[in-house]
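Posting for a labmate who doesn't have an account.
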Amino acid sequence: MSRVAVAGGTGTVGRLVVAALRGAGHEAVVLSRASGVDLLAGATPALLAALEGCDAVVDATGPTSLAASQTARGSRRFFERTTTALLEAGRTCGVGHHVALSIVGASRVDAALYAGKARQEQLVSQHDGGWTLLRTTQFHELVPVLAGLARTGPVRLVPAFTSQPLAAAEAADELARLAAGPPQGAVADLAGPLVERVPELARRWLAVTRRPGRVVEVPLPGRFGTALRTGQALPGAGARLARTTFAEWLAGQRPAGPGRPGEPVRR
C-alpha cells in the first residue's frame, strides 16, 4: 500500500483520484485549502506536515480565478508558485515520486491556461527527483462549464473549436495507477475516443439535461483561439485512447429540475 498526497483533492479530477487510490487500497491524503494547505503560500509547515510519510504526490491543482485561468501571465504565476511549492516540500519530506497532470498541446498553444501548464511541465521535467507527467485532452466535464460561461438572455456563447475529450474519471484512474508505480517521466498522452465539435457537444448537453438556451458558436480571439481552431490541442498519433465517449458520459447526467440545477451523477 502506498501513501499518496493529492493536491487539488477536492476538485473535478482530484476527488476522483482520491477515490481511485482508496478503491485500490492506498492511503490518500487530500491537499486543499479546506484541509489547511494553500499551495500559493509556498512550502508551509502545513504542507510539509501533510507530505510526511508520503510515497508520491499527484498534482491535480487548477486555478479558480479568471485571471489565473484565462491569461497567460496569471496562469504562469499560479502554476509556478503551486508547482514549486509541491516540488520543494516533496524534496524536503523525501517524497520519491511527483505525478503531474497537464494538457495535450500545452507547449504548442502556450497561451491562457495552457501557458501555465507549459511552465508546470518545464518545472517538473527539471526536477532532480522522480517524476511522471501525464498530458490529457479536455474532459467531458468541461462542456457544461463552457455552456454556462457566457450567456446573453436565451443565448449561450460557446467557443468554436474541435476537441477529443475524455471522462475525468478515466484520467483520474490513470493518475492513481501512475502514482502507485515508479517514476516514468513523460508518458504517452491520454485522449478521448472521438474527435468532436465542442458547440455541438454543448447542444447535446443542454438537450439531455433539459436546460433552456440556444448555442451560438463564437471564435475565440487571438493566439489562443487560433491554436484551438487549428487543432494544436489535439493529440498526436502516439496517444492512448480512453474508452468513455461523450454520449456514454452524457447518459449519466441528470436533467435540471424545477428550482435546482442539474448535477452530474456521482460515480
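Reply:
Got it, the C-alpha cells are right above this. The two ends are 23 Å apart (CA to CA).
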